[in-house]
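Protein chain data
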Amino acid sequence: MVLSVSERTFSQEVLESSIPVLVNFEAPWCGLCRIIHPLLLQFKAQCGDQIKLVGVNADDNFKLATKYKLKSLPTLVLIENGIVCQRLESFRGREDLLLALEDMKVCYTNRPKAYHRPTTADLGCRSA
């Protein structure tokens, strides 16, 4: 199950989360969004409590779509401590997405856990 997040709940559920959050910006009319949904659920199951998966309907949350400069759907954004760490968009298919998700998982699971609010440099994050 993917938690549906809106502009009203985004700050609490994503930006203030104590664990990394993978935000899936999607829309009901987007065929690729429906295709990748099971892959995202598998990824979440593999990661367990190390990551939170949320969905944002880009059509219903225009301010978030604008803030995160969506160019295409689906767009996946990994946010940790309120900072965008990775962004996945325009992937070419299932294998491309699976490789990107695996890379993402390795990035955050191999990082030592910090007790201070880390900066982008501490996180080893890529800018959006």
